[in-house]
């Protein structure tokens, strides 16, 4: 049965729009098709349909979703065929590394009726400006939440027994790496960075379950802000890299310098801070055993959560503007031409069987 995994290659974060689009597929690939085009031009539908075709054919497929529309797709990877398709337009511009060899640009902009589009010029410019202003507001609010998070982190750190946590970390390292490798023929990125969750105009979306599902050994890493979850995961990652293992680092969707989950492929093991882990059989690693919090900074938690909610609310304005841009372009596109491209692309991909 085909395995489907879902990621967010980009995020709406406290550092602005943050991209890991260069981690969708590595250079050891047969082909990366880079779509260039316009909003409403069928890029996401094209990728989703080809991805679903591949799943029906029994291939493992990754769907890389858009943080501005979690139901939309920024890229797909058909794992066994080492083929990817990505949306290479702003804000995640992707250019070919080896054009014609392992990269190919597909220009969907050729199907725009430019003369018809000119009739909507003022509306299009207005929608673009609305989109820009909504993102500016959202990113400023997310940015404002970061100092509050830092304050919570600093206050909590003073109440943590890090000697105990260091011992707990070493015990976890000994336990995790005592396993024998389950697979030594893994290819792809040695260290891959992605998001498995995102703050979107439709709220918080978490696809971590699609990554946890099928992993044999699962650890739920529990702990308050400031107890050292990211430091713990970095130490596990460093040990895995020393052993030359392939790992996937899944970053926090608000503060990308922090880590939510770590997958070690050779050990078929994931350590995750996400609640999704608790839907499976798992082992708990609880850093709160060494945290003596008294709840005195609960107002800071409330302020932080309130700012995050306001940031999500601001993103909804960007979605409205994007829908308007899509509706304008849809009036001016020859979709028959795009359907022909989609058919030809699927035929080309099948040649990599």
- Tell me the radius of gyration: 22 Å
- Unreliably modeled segments: none
Mean pLDDT: 95
Q: What is the quaternary state of this protein?
A: single chain
Number of domains: 2
Helical proportion, percent range: 25-40%
Portion in beta strands = 15-25%
Q: What is the string of SSEs from the N terminus onward?
A: EEEEHEEEEHHHEEEHEHEEEEHH
Structural category: alpha/beta
Biggest pleated-sheet summary: 6 strands, mixed
Distance from N terminus to C terminus (CA atoms, Å) equals 17 Å
Strand order of the largest sheet: 1-5-6-7-4-8
How many H/I helical runs?
8
| Total number of strands | 16
Shape verdict: flat
Question: Mind explaining what this structure looks like?
Answer:
- The protein is α/β, with parallel strands linked by helices.
- It has two domains: 4-111 and 335-350, no CATH class; 160-290, no CATH class.
- The protein contains eight helices and 16 strands.
- It has helices at 43-56, 114-117, 121-157, 162-176, 208-212, 229-242, 298-330, 335-350; strands at 4-7, 10-13, 16-19, 31-36, 61-66, 69-78, 83-87, 103-107, 191-195, 197-200, 203-206, 217-222, 247-251, 259-264, 269-272, 283-286.
- The strands form four sheets. Strands 1-5-6-7-4-8 form a six-stranded mixed beta sheet.
- A hairpin with a 2-residue loop joins strand 2 (10-13) and strand 3.
- Helix 3 packs antiparallel against helix 7 (298-330).
């Amino acid at each position: 049965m085909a395995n489907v995994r879902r990621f967010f290659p980009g995020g709406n974060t406290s550092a602005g729009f943050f991209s890991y689009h260069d981690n969708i597929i590595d250079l050891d690939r047969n082909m990366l098709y880079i779509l260039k085009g316009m909003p409403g031009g069928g890029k996401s539908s094209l990728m989703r349909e080809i991805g679903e075709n591949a799943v029906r054919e029994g291939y493992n497929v990754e769907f890389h979703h858009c943080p501005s529309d979690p139901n939309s797709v920024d890229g797909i990877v058909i794992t066994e065929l080492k083929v990817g398709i990505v949306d290479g337009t702003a804000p995640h511009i992707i250019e070919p590394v080896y054009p014609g060899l392992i990269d190919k640009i597909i220009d969907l902009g050729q199907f725009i009726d430019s003369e018809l589009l000119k009739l909507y010029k003022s509306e299009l410019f207005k929608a673009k400006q609305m989109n820009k202003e909504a993102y500016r507001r959202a990113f400023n609010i997310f940015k404002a939440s970061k100092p509050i998070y830092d304050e919570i982190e600093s206050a909590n750190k003073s109440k943590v027994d890090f000697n105990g946590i260091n011992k707990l970390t070493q015990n976890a390292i000994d336990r995790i790496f005592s396993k024998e490798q389950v697979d030594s023929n893994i290819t792809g990125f040695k260290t891959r960075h992605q998001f498995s969750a995102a703050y979107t105009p439709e709220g918080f979306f978490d696809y971590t379950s699609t990554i946890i599902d099928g992993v044999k050994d699962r650890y739920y890493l529990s702990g308050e802000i400031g107890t050292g979850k990211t430091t713990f995961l970095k130490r596990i990652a460093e040990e895995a890299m020393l052993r030359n293992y392939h790992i996937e680092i899944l970053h926090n969707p608000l503060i990308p310098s922090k880590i939510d989950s770590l997958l070690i492929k050779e050990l078929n093991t994931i350590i995750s801070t996400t609640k999704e882990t608790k839907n499976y059989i798992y082992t708990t690693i609880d850093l709160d055993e060494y945290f003596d919090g008294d709840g005195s900074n609960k107002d800071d938690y409330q302020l932080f959560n309130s700012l995050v909610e306001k940031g999500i609310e601001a993103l909804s304005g960007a979605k409205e503007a994007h829908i308007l841009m899509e509706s304008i372009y849809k009036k001016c596109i020859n979709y028959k031409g795009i359907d022909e491209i989609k058919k030809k692309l699927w035929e080309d991909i099948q040649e990599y069987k």
